[in-house]
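Supplementary Data S3. Sequence and structure tokens for construct A.
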Amino acid sequence: MSSAVQTAFAQLPPPAAVSLKKIAVVGNYLPRQCGIATFTTHLCEALAAVAPDLAVIAIPVNDRPEGYDYPQRVRFELEQNEIASYRSATDFLNINNIDLVCLQHEYGIFGGPAGSHILAMLRELRMPVVTTLHTVLREPDENQRRVLAEIAQLSDRVVVMTRRGVEFARDIYGIPEEKIDFIPHGIPDMPFVDPNFHKDQFGLQGKTVLLTFGLLSPNKGIEHVIRALPEVLERHPNLVYVVLGATHPHVRLHHGESYRYSLERLARQLDVDRNVVFHNRFVSEEELLDFIGAADIYITPYLNPAQITSGTLAYSAGAGKAVISTPYWHAEELLADGRGVLVPFADPHAIAQALLRLLDNEAERHAMRKRAYLACRDMIWPNVAAMYLRSFERAREDRSRKPRPAFTAVTLRERAVELPAPRHDHLRTLTGPAGIFQHAIHTVPNYSEGYTTDDNARALVLSVMLERRGLEWPYAPRYLGFLHHAFDRSTGRFHNWMGFDHRWLDEVGSEDCHGRAIWALGVVLGSSSRDGLRGAAGQLMEAALPAVGKFTSPRAWAYALLGLNEYLRRFPGDRAAQALREDLAGRLMRLYEIVRTPDWLWFEDILAYCNARLSQALIVTGRMLNRSDWLEAGLESLDWLARVQTAEGGHLVPIGSNGFWRRGQERARFDQQPVEAHTMVSACLDAWRATGDERWRTEARRAFDWFLGRNDLGLPLYDAATGGCRDGLHPDRVNQNEGAESTLSFHFALEEMHHAGDIIGS
């Protein structure tokens, strides 16, 4: 432990001097099965034990609708993917006289891109905030960097658990060092005992016990330990390798027990199955400590070097175990100076040699145990809780010198637009046995109009957008199945129109329909984490791409470009896709240069439908390929489109579909379509991401407000009762039918606005 932390600990006031009366700790909580839940639970109990007069309440995050059977300490529950829940938690904390909030931050436990929903809570809290960073990435993506930077800005103090975490927080995220507290991971206070004392509880007396524990997932590297066993067992046949812990719930949800089964098969293939024990259960703290006590050697063969904190490693070193580990960040730090042995990643022979070294040299093994045990004594939970109390007091002192006002007047212009909570009832109603129905009669599916590839492609894209924020939409395989069925391999093209009787009504679909299908497939391949979806999408993408090079429709080019950019984010080495992307973007650019005049900054002599997609395709491609000419053309054309679609009153007036607008002729004011408002939202937000210019977020809000009633008629198109969207704006009324294109357009826009609003506040 560093001298800075030791000094902080020495200066701690006795528990009676703690000025705080009531704190809330936000993070997962037992009985949810994960490391954050275990940590949060133990921290709360340790704080309550060290400061008996301090009221400690917990605010856990639920990743399933039914929640968990929490203890009484839990006073409020966050629903992971519902942003309204975070705002409700803010109100709960602000009105309940909470003196301080201690946030346990891990990207994966909160909803929104990179866990950004938590920002909705932090922005409005009135009390000091101390945030513990359980993950500090060296190479964050754009969203991860922005989210963590704002969390740090909104926090009065930031806690990290390793010295490397201090460096990363300071150098990568720009957190002032004077704002950072280094407090190690807490551990139970275990006596330094002979492992044989515990072995008889598990029938392991007379055995040498090698232990790995924690929730199982493929990044744990356990297969490399099993591959090392034959070499070790030749000299130490009494060794038993105990793998303790259930499969991670999220891994089990998506992949079942396939990883555990693969490990069992490997053990049998290597004829070491009589020396391997799988204890497939999430054990209690008491059982866990007994298992650790029985271990002669603990091993963490993790495969990811970018692990800044490991609770299992801290527990084992603190219990005085001889430890072998791969050199992930926390292990390099905790096991330095002879407190453990580091081996290369994914190297069974190196693991075997390290095991033989410790097993053959009992004196060295016991000396290593003692060094680890003594070095970790400051990490026992009472000491760690005392350090947290000191951090809390510092946060309160800092806030008293520079208080946040109880109420800050925020004008409507300064405040982020209020967004409806997502409601998907009508999308469920529209989804039939083959896919999503095209039209509705008011809110009832219109079976006689059947299905289209256009709408099923859109629905598939929305499914992935919902998946990004943690909601696995169950109909995604149905929409992708429709695309597979729509593809005619003899022509290399998609059908578009299907009747209710599931018979195709066209010989070949439009180029635009094909482009939308490529867009959807690219989004699945680039962003979905569902292996089955990606596998099916990959086969179809490969078969459908060749036709795109022959297309003449600019919108087909634009949709294909959006899909290719998504695909190439994940598979940047695909040279055929790279070449097609550059070809299509070049075509759009040449078209713009030919048609553009000072008073008509556009790609065609007509403004028709889904206009903003043309600008967006150049913006996104130009940004990804550092082509400033493409980016500037996209921004210029989008700027012009925004200007000609803005009424004198400041609201959006999309080009009407009843005639569109041909250069030199009268412009159609109606029928205004939801898809035009959505594509403006999407394109403007990509322009904002490309430039950082807040003007583009203002334009996106203007377009989104069209759905809510800021339009020519002053009437909302979004139906809050069903979650559907009405089909368009006529000169005298709203079209009351709620079809697929309209409803999907609204939900696209809503998801994108939530995303942008979460990441950067106004």
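Construct B, processed identically:
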Amino acid sequence: MVVKPTLSWTLLHSFAILFVLINLATGLRIATLSRPWLLELSALLPQGALHWLHIAGAFGLSATAMAYVIYRFNQRSQRTTATLSDKYHRIITWLAYPLVILSLLTGWLQFFDSALSVVDIHFYAALGFLLYLVVHAGGYFIQYGWPAIKRAFVPSVADSKPSWNIVVPAVAGLLLWYYMGYQPSNDLLVERIPLTTLVTIDGITNEPEWNNAQEITVLTRGGANFTNGETLVTIKVLENGAEAFFNITWQDTSKSLEHLPLVKTNQGWQIKQDGFNQFDETAYYEDKLAIMLADQCAPGGGGTAHLGPKPLADQPANFHGKGYHYSDDGKVRDIWHWKAVRTNSMYLADDNFFGPPVKPRAGERRYSAGYIADGKESGAYVMNWQWYKPEVIVPKRLPKHNELIAPYQVDHQPNNQLDHKNNNLQTSDNLQWVISWFDYRPYLAENDHYPIGTVMPSVMYRSNRFEGDRAHVRAHGQWKDGMWTLELARPLNTQSQHDVILQTGTCLWVSAFDHSQVAHTRHQQAIRLLFEGNHD
């Protein structure tokens, strides 16, 4: 005898299908950020701002799971005679229970930025769901054929209204999603210090005020080259009524400064790269740290992360297939981008912002959507090649003297033919992979006498620092014993339309890069700044 399902069971089953599919589709797209091989499935996955939908699906599935437990408890006294096929489906259904528990548990641990390393478990649980859908739905299809679809979504039911035990969890799930999905769980007290207190921005935190500052540590995940893709980031903040000072440390086993170096080959000069063609370099790049600030704490990088190769239908696709950053609400998110080679010697971080997507410019190779640099009056670094080509490039300039690039040959060309003095050689950790425009001269083929294997830095300063809006963030970092220490300072209110005011309620995120171009770590919960002092 076929027992008709109740309306409550039918709704629970439909909700479970809906939320599992939402979480699988959005979760696999999010996973492409740290598992590039999943981009092979890119055409099947959704694009755009998906983090909020993934979180909503998690709340929905959690509420459905709670309602199902209540439903099964109320139905525990009912027993039916099971056929062989019923026993098969019952066994398969029981296999879903540990998958649901594992997926929700590891997902919530990530959502709250737990220090437990559960990313891989969460991912494999998702793959388990894919297998479960095949054996579960496939079994019913083999048994009933196409009518199985109607049986799953439009069944005949034994009653006409759902019971209270699914309404209450559904409402609770909606309320939790609204409250928890958009409210950070991490508050950081910003201690007030006297205006006369000197905080030197040098990457050496020897000021006694730092010892008394409150700190917060978050586990950031998903970055290339870090151990298990993870690194702990610790943040302290002080303010004096005019400026805020940031002390940020993170684990990085290697000090990486070789930023797309040039190497002389039989064919000519080439850029050493392993992904720069797709703007996703993960080998020959500098260490970096990005800080994002916003006046709200929405998930998905303050609502700016739009995933997929072409989240903007009327704009160019991105080369690496991971997505773009831009805002949909017309507001800006402040981005401070510290770079161990390009800005550290300037004692600055690059002051940028995420805003509405801009129109592409004719001839530009890389479209960046809403990721835009603040304006500047002067100052710049440039790359030492005339036009980028993946095979051979022509440098813009060559050194006036061989001694200028002799130290860079130590690790790359031990028996090089350059005319240099050995007592002036430096270790690679101490090399500043930045060269001066004025110490070099325009490239001429007759001056290109350098032997095969010669290495030359690619980052060239025209001046030693930015000036103007782009120079609001003073910064300097030091690496020692597997740890970067970065100090930054910025006025609380720069009066710039591209900057976010630093005040109580400002939300902050951090992302670390281990010699990678875009493959950075991330965390879910924003850090909300709570200023101790009162400002006029």
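Residues 168 and 377 are 59 Å apart (CA to CA). Residues 413-427 have pLDDT under 50 and may be disordered.
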